[in-house]
Design brief:
Layout: E1 2-6, H1 11-22, E2 26-31, H2 36-40, E3 44-47, H3 53-60, E4 65-68, H4 79-100, E5 104-108, E6 120-123, H5 136-150, E7 157-163, E8 166-167, H6 174-183, E9 189-190, E10 196-197, E11 200-201, H7 202-217, E12 225-229, E13 235-236, H8 237-247, E14 256-257, H9 259-276, H10 286-293, E15 296-298, H11 301-307, H12 315-331
Parallel strand pairs: 1-2, 1-4, 2-3, 4-5, 5-7, 6-15, 7-12, 8-11, 9-14
Antiparallel strand pairs: 10-13
Length: 332
């Protein structure tokens, strides 16, 4: 198949491109920056912003499927900046797919679209979209997912996937950032330290994306649905982090702060960063405090039933590989 991957230069995007190439697909990517490594692999690399409609129309031309992975992620920034990429960009993808006659679209969403400030324990897809999140990322991703699911029809069939906390070798953000914060003594346990969360190995996330495309191709389901994706075995977040730190020879995270004080600290930091336009992002936000303190793991039975999804990765082996990779990064 001829397949476009938006955000093909990112962590998940690159892993997805690799699997598509391995199975013989012709791959085109749309990224913000040049991707020399992908070009050398035979990938057609287009450079541009998904917020630009003409860029998307050119990228979608002649494609048989689109994986829309590109997004503005993060916990800090203006609503307008998140909206431009996550909502306007997704709308452009949808309109370009229709104009170019692309029949299948797989959208990479996030479980944060159902954020409600409460613990999420075995949560399923019946939860409503968030409408009162103190962070623009979940709000704009929820709006974009609504557009994707509403676009499902006879000409364009869509599925949204919600992988939670993607990890693995090559991760440029999540785990390396946690390790760096811990080594610098800037990481605190929020709450009682017993909250359970889902993780999703990058290879499991890729597997789910490919299954979703095959489901749409073969007409197994009509589309227009969202699915939670994970490794299928929630971990105690702070135990997992401290076990990883121990294997890297780093000190464990010991100091704690209650969720209430952390939330107040986050609100104060957000206000200071806005008022004084401080660089970077605050050391704590209200959204981060909640995410680090409360349970959030999800029921993936819908993905198992509809897509045939089961985790493919041996987590122990994958963790060994991650530790080896992180150790190498720390010594270079």
């Amino acid at each position: 198949m001829k397949i476009l991957v938006t955000g093909g230069g990112g962590f998940l995007g690159r892993a997805l491109v690799g699997r598509l190439l391995a199975r013989g697909d012709t791959v085109r990517v749309l990224t913000r920056s040049a991707q020399t490594g992908l070009t050398q692999l035979g990938v057609e690399c287009l450079q541009g912003d998904i917020a630009d409609a003409d860029t998307l129309l050119h990228a979608c031309a002649g494609q048989e499927a689109v994986f829309h992975v590109a997004a503005k992620a993060g916990v800090w920034g203006t609503y307008a900046a998140f909206h431009a990429t996550n909502v306007t960009g997704t709308r452009n993808v949808l309109e370009s797919c229709r104009a170019a006659g692309v029949p299948f679209l797989i959208y990479t969403s996030t479980p944060s679209v159902v954020y409600n400030g409460q613990a999420l324990i075995g949560a399923d897809e019946s939860l409503p979209f968030t409408c009162a999140c103190p962070c623009p990322y979940p709000l704009t991703k929820a709006e974009a997912e609504r557009l994707v699911l509403a676009a499902n029809g006879s000409a364009l069939r869509t599925i949204a996937l919600r992988p939670h906390l993607i990890w693995g070798v090559g991760d440029p953000h999540l785990v390396p950032r946690v390790v760096a914060q811990a080594r610098a003594g800037r990481l605190l346990i929020i709450g009682n330290g017993k909250n359970c969360v889902d993780l999703t190995h990058v290879d499991n996330a890729v597997h789910a994306h490919l299954l979703a495309l095959e489901t749409l191709k073969h007409g197994t389901l009509p589309g227009g649905r969202a699915y939670f994706i994970s490794d299928g075995a929630p971990v105690v977040l702070w135990d997992w982090i401290n076990a990883l730190l121990a294997r890297l020879g780093a000190p464990p995270v010991k100091h704690r702060i209650g969720l209430g004080p952390a939330t107040l600290l986050g609100a104060a930091a957000e206000l200071a960063w806005r008022l004084f336009r401080l660089p970077g992002e605050p050391p704590m936000t209200r959204f981060v405090a909640t995410e680090l303190a409360k349970d959030h793991w999800f029921d993936t039975s819908a993905a198992r039933q509809d897509l045939g999804y089961t985790p493919q990765v041996d987590n122990a082996a994958a963790l060994n590989a991650l530790v080896a990779w992180l150790a190498t990064k720390n010594t270079t």
